[in-house]
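Supplementary Text 2. Reproducibility record for the structural model of the 267-residue chain.

All settings were left at their defaults, and a single model was retained for analysis rather than an ensemble. We include the record here because the model underlies the residue-level annotations in Supplementary Table 4.
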Amino acid sequence: MAAFAAFFARTGALAALLAITLGAGPAMARGCFPIAERGLPGVQLASLPAEATVGITFLGHASFWIETAGGVTAITDYNGVHVGPDTPDIVTMNNAHRTHFTDSPDPAIEHVLRGWNPAGGVAEHDLDQGDLRVRNIPTSVHGRTGIHANSNSIFVFEVEDLCIAHLGHLHHVLTDMHLGELGLIDILLVPVDGSFTIGQPLMRRVIDQIGPSVVIPMHYFGRASLDRFLDLMSDEWTIAVAEGSSVAYDRLTLPHRQVQVLQPVRP
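Retained model, structure tokens:
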């Protein structure tokens, strides 16, 4: 138990978790533990490796194709442009911006989860579909106030004790309440543009707040901004650059403090 407490203290998550656990608040994460990784070429993830728990493909911009071992599929920041190899079961739209959502999703998509509430107020999602749970944590967006203040969401994808968090169009560092709602995150999908979201040094602070094992960059405009982010991370993180767009994870071992760069299917 002392080792776990030390870990939580290092990531800044212990106080937040205790605050949410002891008080009334949103549902907590189920609990996520390290798993292993292997590279996969290309975009087709219809057949995961036998031992894999989940596959992730970088479709481009802020969109990822996520597929579980049970065959459940999701696309993050679905905009109708960066689409997967098949119609997904679930799409998330983190932010009400034209490159992060569409008003005309494929009607065959069973669940469309918006990171904002079109009627105003806070979006609330907690969906179980097969072996995948998807939930959201609302965050603020610069320049939006009142009923539109919390119009971005971090979406969390839970698969067999593996937790993936997509930060969306994050515009600020996280509070203890945000960290408590997130729980323990294994894989973090991070916008690294450094301008339209938040500056890269602040994004590095957010990464340190959450304490994932793997960071996958997204939402960058040209190689220069990606390279600046990689330079910022390279002092304490291993940089891995995949030749393809996809990676698969299972439950054996998770790379420790690794930035995994995937090639976008469609830039």
